[in-house]
Amino acid sequence: MAEPETEGTDLSLRAAEVASDVSETDKPQERRRLVSTFTRAVTTGARAAGRGTRAVRRRAGDGAGWLSDQVVAMAPRLRVRDRTTLTAQFPGKSPDEIADALIEGAARAAAAAGGAAGMAAALPVLPAIPVEIAAETLLLVGIELKLVAELHEAYGTPAPGKFPERMSAYVGAWAHRRGVFMIEGGLIFAAGSPLARLLRRRLVGRASRSAFSLGPMLTGAAAGALFNRRETRKLGREIQRDLRRHAVEPPRGPWWHL
């Protein structure tokens, strides 16, 4: 039956849409609304989705293999601003200043995701916890993948190839926590490859930490928001340090061509 695959595709598509929207808004209320709507749709509305959602719940419980597939499927669906767009949105800003703004925006978006998951755990109807963890993890990774991609654009060092190929490269960069040019061993996501194993390990760690946001009442919300903000900011700074060393700068004089 095709239902499980369709449901998984719907989840990765929706996660990509929300990750893109929540990363770009500078309004806290809008961030909370976007994330809360996504969380409720995946969790408290699970009963209405029937057999397809039960399949997602079962597969989400199977481990990082399923989650890894969803991340790879989500990546090319993310909305990524290129260098021209970023320059227009941040007029007069240097690459470092644009990068700083992107990192802080992503950190705030990640905090909203963790806070919303914690609040969902306090609902009177117990949500499907495995699906909730998978959904929050996908959303967080989507926010961070968009950040990784736009940092490369801000510094004029985008990955080569067409958009799907570039996004695959950024998945590898996210797993390695390095700029794409620093990755050794290729970008092969086949089962058992070094990159596939690393991606799964990263996702296991991210998903297990997402469980902290499912603590009781507001404790989980506060812990999830704080942790996500810190981790996303840390990732952004690590990527930024690599990109600074390889940034493409405009010509500054005749010596440029020497």
In angstroms, what is the radius of gyration? Answer: 18 Å
Q: Distance between the terminal alpha carbons, to the nearest Å?
A: 63 Å
Question: What's the order of the H and E elements?
Answer: HHHHHHHHHH
Q: Could you report the average pLDDT, rounded to the nearest whole number?
A: 77
Structural class, judged by helices and strands? mainly alpha
C-alpha geometry: globular
**Major β-sheet, in short?**
none
Question: Percent of residues in beta strands?
Answer: under 5%
What does this structure look like?
The structure is a single chain. The protein has helices at residues 3-24, 28-42, 51-60, 64-74, 83-89, 95-120, 129-154, 163-176, 194-210, 217-245. The chain has 258 residues and is mostly helical. It has one domain (3-244). Helix 4 crosses helix 7. The longest helix is centred in the C-terminal third of the chain and has 29 residues, at 217-245. The chain starts with a helix and ends in a 13-residue tail after the last helix. 45% of the residues are buried. Residues 1-6, 46-57, 118-129, 215-220 and 250-258 have low confidence and may be disordered.
